[in-house]
TrEMBL record:
GO terms for biological process: methylation. This is S-adenosyl-L-methionine-dependent methyltransferase. PANTHER family: METHYLTRANSFERASE TYPE 11 DOMAIN-CONTAINING PROTEIN, S-ADENOSYL-L-METHIONINE-DEPENDENT METHYLTRANSFERASE SUPERFAMILY PROTEIN-RELATED. It holds the Pfam family Methyltransf_29. The keyword Transferase applies. The lineage of its organism: Eukaryota, Viridiplantae, Streptophyta, Embryophyta, Tracheophyta. One of its GO terms (molecular function) is methyltransferase activity. Its main location: membrane. It is found in: Endomembrane system; Membrane. GO terms for cellular component: endomembrane system; membrane. The keyword Transmembrane applies. Residues 127-146 are annotated as: Disordered. Belongs to the methyltransferase superfamily. InterPro entries: Prob_Methyltransferase, Put_SAM_MeTrfase, SAM-dependent_MTases_sf.
């Protein structure tokens, strides 16, 4: 059936749908433009919202209501598109475009969301824009309704309802008579986006929207609900290359679905020409599988790295399984695999096909957001490695939760390998204090200046041993 859809001559988009789309799109955009034009455009874009100065812009509720309205209209439109029986390619492309607009609208809504909350209740700061509002009451109800019905999609209602076992009333191996599928409480904040995610035709091909799913996860709606649709596959996927070769072999372009990435082929991920336009920023050369990282010739006096052998020699034969929590394409896991150590590589697809590349190398991609507890049991892993991840951006409180979760999954005497953590010189002590607080023994420890333009940062690399605790 799926093959057919490629061969069939494309049908036109049904007239009714087109009319609805045009109406929704143009009326909504018109409304948005008209009403935001009451606000000076330069303020709208450039004012620093963080400050409490007098020229701080406060958006009237009305804008928010309009955007919510557009979001729900797009939701309805997408629902109609996805339940359309036609298999035409044009329709699929069309749906994807509508989805993209909907996603940008969500982004807009999200980036504006901070600036509604401080509207004074007495309405002093509300501009005349609000006079046009006739839906304010309605939407306020929706805002307050977190205690009542939050989500609208029927499929989500179905998903979260208890699922009784087949012989009703009998307990399953979990000791439960019903399974209770859950979604994170953060999903309630993202109700319209999640409703959109759950709008699809059951047992049909899913919308091409993994980026929407990832956005939900990163924004705190995690775990996501399961869906009853088929994920698209790369059309010309053949078979993986054998393990002894795959570790250092670049995947074929046809094995990856590029539709949601800025880069449309592998060359773009590694070439210098595209470096500012690839859609990802961390680990600029990590898709270059000819670079073995950790393994290159290093000047011991200036390098902040430890070699794989240095690490493994700390506990010969004892390091067997572990986790790499780094936004990279799996090179640490590949080097460890060559030493017969099994490493899961935790990363999301932040603008590039990280998970696909890790998998194509024959390594295990663990797709998990930073907001989540690790899916490992207590005291089980021999090593946790992290690079390019914590760095100087992380706040102390988040760092504490992350570190203590790593601590939880590490086995007694397991290794925490903090690889080239960097931050501003003046912040290093603060971070080091946090690393010290978990009471690990320092097996390897190195603080080095970070040699780049600014020269005001330091690297910390450390291998720390988890204590046995009473
Ligand atoms: C939701 O579940 C009900 C009852 O199980 C079922 O009748 C209905 O068809 C389901 N709806 C969808 C959209 O699958
Ligand atoms: C991989 O393994 C196969 C069979 O085990 C062998 O024929 C081949 O030479 C190996 N390739 C490499 C690059 O080691
Ligand atoms: C890319 O740039 C780096 C340094 O900027 C250089 O070392 C490297 O050779 C360049 N690679 C290519 C393929 O041009
Ligand atoms: C990994 O395991 C294989 C098979 O047991 C063995 O031949 C090889 O020497 C091991 N490599 C290392 C680095 O221990």
């Amino acid at each position: 059936m799926r093959k057919q859809s490629i061969l069939r001559p494309p049908k036109c988009i049904p007239g009714g749908l087109r009319t609805i789309l045009c109406f929704v799109l143009f009326s909504s955009l018109f409304v948005l433009i008209v009403y935001t034009s009451h606000i000076s455009y330069s303020d709208f874009v450039f004012t620093s919202f963080g400050t409490e100065s007098n020229d701080r812009i406060v958006f009237p509720r009305y804008i928010k209501n309009q955007i919510s309205y557009m979001q729900s209209q797009f939701g309805i439109l997408l629902e109609q598109l996805h339940t359309e029986r036609s298999e035409s390619k044009i329709l699929v492309k069309f749906s994807d475009q509508v989805l993209q607009i909907a996603v940008s609208l969500d982004r807009l809504a999200e980036s504006l969301s901070r600036h509604y909350s401080n509207v004074p209740a007495d309405g002093k700061d509300i501009t005349k824009v609000d006079e046009y509002s006739s839906t304010t009451e309605e939407d306020e109800v929706e805002e307050e309704s977190l205690h009542g019905k939050v989500f609208n999609s029927a499929e989500l209602q179905n998903y979260t309802s208890p699922k009784p076992n087949k012989p009703r009333g009998k307990k399953n191996f979990l000791g439960l008579e019903s399974v209770y599928p859950s979604i994170g409480q953060g999903c309630a904040r993202l109700a319209s986006t999640l409703d959109r995610f759950m709008t699809y035709k059951a047992y049909d091909i899913c919308p091409d929207d993994w980026d929407l799913a990832q956005k939900l996860m990163i924004s705190g709606c995690d775990p996501l609900p399961r869906r009853r649709c088929f994920t698209r596959t790369p059309l010309r996927y053949d078979k993986p290359c054998p393990l002894n070769a795959s570790l250092w072999t670049q995947p074929r372009d046809v094995d990856i679905s590029w539709s949601r990435y800025k880069c449309k082929n592998y060359r773009c991920l590694v070439s210098n020409g595209t470096i500012n336009n690839r859609g990802f920023y961390k680990c600029s050369d990590c898709f270059d599988l000819t670079k073995r990282g950790w393994d290159g010739q290093r000047d011991k006096d200036i390098s902040a790295e430890f070699s794989i052998d240095e690490i493994l020699m700390l506990k010969p034969g004892e390091i067997r399984i572990g986790l790499d929590f780094s936004p990279t394409a799996g090179t640490f896991a590949a080097l460890m695999k060559e030493k017969n150590v099994t490493i899961a590589s935790a990363t999301m697809n932040l603008g590039a096909p990280f998970s696909e590349v890790i998998a194509s190398r024959g390594l295990l991609p663990l797709y998990i957001s930073i907001g989540s507890r690790l899916p490992f049991f207590d005291n089980t892993l021999d090593i946790v490695h992290s690079t390019l991840f914590l760095d100087g951006w992380i706040g102390i409180e988040l760092l504490q939760f992350v570190l203590l979760d790593w601590d939880r999954v590490l086995r007694p005497k397991g290794l925490l390998y903090v690889d080239r953590f960097f931050c501003k010189k003046e912040n290093m002590k603060m971070y080091v204090d946090e690393f010290d607080r978990i009471g690990y023994k320092r097996l390897l420890w190195k603080v080095m200046p970070k040699m780049d333009k600014l020269d005001d940062e330091l690297f910390l690399s450390a291998v720390l041993e988890k204590p046995v605790r009473g």
